[in-house]
Design goal:
There is one protein chain. By secondary structure, this protein is mainly beta. The protein has 1 helix and 19 strands. It has one helix spanning 2-21, and strands at residues 25-30, 33-38, 48-57, 63-70, 83-87, 90-97, 118-121, 127-138, 148-154, 159-165, 183-189, 193-197, 212-222, 227-232, 245-249, 252-259, 277-280, 285-294, 311-314. It has a 5-stranded antiparallel sheet with strand order 1-3-8-6-5, with no helix packed on it. It has a 5-stranded antiparallel sheet with strand order 12-13-18-16-15, with no helix packed on it. A hairpin with a 2-residue loop joins strand 15 (245-249) and strand 16.
Amino acid sequence: MRLKTCCMVMAALWLLMAGGAQAQVCNFAMTNINFGNINIGPGGTPSTTGTLTANCSGIANRTITICPNIGDGTGGSASGSPRYLLNGANTISYDLLQPNGQVWGSFVWPYAARAPILSLTLNGQGTGSLSQTVQAVISGSIASAPTGTYLSTYSAYHTLFDYGYAPGQNCSVVSTRATQAPFAVQAANVATCNLSTTAMDFGTLSGLTTAQAATSQIGITCTKGAAYVVSLSNGSNGGTGPTARKMAGAGGSISYGIYRDAAHAQPWGQTTGTDTVSGIGTGLAQTVTAYGFLPAQGNPNPATYSDVVVVTVSY
């Protein structure tokens, strides 16, 4: 009788051990995704990455199927692509992508894009880990976005990571094993300005017995809401002020001025608040005209005369 009781206890212990060894357990972690400083300048919207890590245990040498569902975050989405980063009512579009370039989606959201299906084979001790890169790209123009920090957070159902032994795991059905790995996506939209200019060409003249006029276009593209000031240097030939710049050539020099108005009454120089041009960025190109005036100076020696004026935008 004692032998029979002993064997029954041993059998019960063996069944408990076998049952416990069959359970698969996975823990997930996702790094925050930070675009850093972005702006409307060339190269101002870089891509970045995050890393999803899985650590699993279970039956030795078994393969676990992982369904890493990532939703649309607190920024939301209208179709799964793009997602949105928020700063109050302002948005910036971005995408989370798989390594193959497809949108990283979810089996449990209403959009077509799905999550990649990952596989992890446990080692002889019944443990294993993997990491997967999540690509992030700013996917649209940020011209309409004011400066500030833009954010979308992922928690609860936005990171519903499910898993189970292959081949039985079905990513279309969420099991009770599904768990979360909260993270955030962030970008700081910073103020910047870009300039473009056209030459101010007075043309070919036979003399300067009468005054001459010419114009130049200055293009200013600044972040929406950014205050800016545009100033012009006195030139590279020893000009002493906005109306006393000099074009130099083999024949000597010619005096000229640059103004903010067609009537040549408002000089354009480099004293902020006095003779500069100011504005507020819209995120799009704004064009300002510079008006050149060449007063009558008789008949200088024939030659080609030129000057280099530096345009500076402060913001």
